[in-house]
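Audit log entry. Action: structure prediction of a protein-small molecule complex. Ligand: zinc ion. The ligand was supplied as SMILES and no pocket hint was given, so placement is left entirely to the predictor. Protonation state taken as written. Sequence taken verbatim from the request; no trimming, no tag removal. Recorded inputs:
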Amino acid sequence: MKTCSRCKVSKPLESYSKLASSRDGLQSKCKQCFSEYNRQRYQAKGEEIRAKVNARARRLGKDLYEKYQREYLKEYYQKNKERINKRNAEYAKNNREVRRGIKARYRTQLVQGMSALDRRKSTLHRKRIKDNPCYYCGRYRTDMHDDHYYPIGLGGTDHWFNIVRACSECNFKKSKRLARDFIF
Ligand SMILES: [Zn+2]
Ligand SMILES: [Zn+2]
C-alpha cells in the first residue's frame, strides 16, 4: 500500500502508474489523481502553451521553426542522454510485443499492392543503385541508405521506382516530409 500525495488515501500499488525516475518506481499521485491533475493543468496551461508555440512559429517561419525544433531536440537529447537511453531501453524491454506489431504492420504496408515480380524488381533495383551517390545532394558518404522517395508513413510503397540512395544526413533532414517538398 502507498499513500497518494494528492488525495492522501492509502491505495494498493496497482493504483499507481510506473515512473522509473522515482525512488520506488511509482508516481506519487494515484492514477485517478494523476489524470485529474493532468486535466486541470492542461485546461489552465494548454491555451497559454499553444499560443506561445504558435507565436514562435509565426515569428520564425515554418522552416526555421522546424529547424529550431530539431536543434532543440538534439540539445535536449545531449543533456538528458543517459535518462532518455535508459527510458528507451526500459520501454523497449517492456514493449517487445508492441514493437513486433509495429514492425509487422510496416512490412505489410511496405509490400502493399506489390506482386512477387514487383518485389523481385525492387531487390534488383537495390543492388543496382548500391554504389550510387546520394539522390538528394549528389555526394558519397560513408553512411548511405536506401530511402523511400515517398515515405512509407505517408503511403509510399517499396516499389523499385520509389527507392533511391540517400546519405544519412539527407535522410534525416528529409525525415517524413514528402520528397517533393524537400528543399536544400
Ligand atoms: Zn489520489
Ligand atoms: Zn545527401
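Audit: result stored. The longest helix spans residues 62-94. Residues 4, 6-7, 9, 29-30, 32-33 surround zinc ion (ligand 1) (CB under 6 Å).
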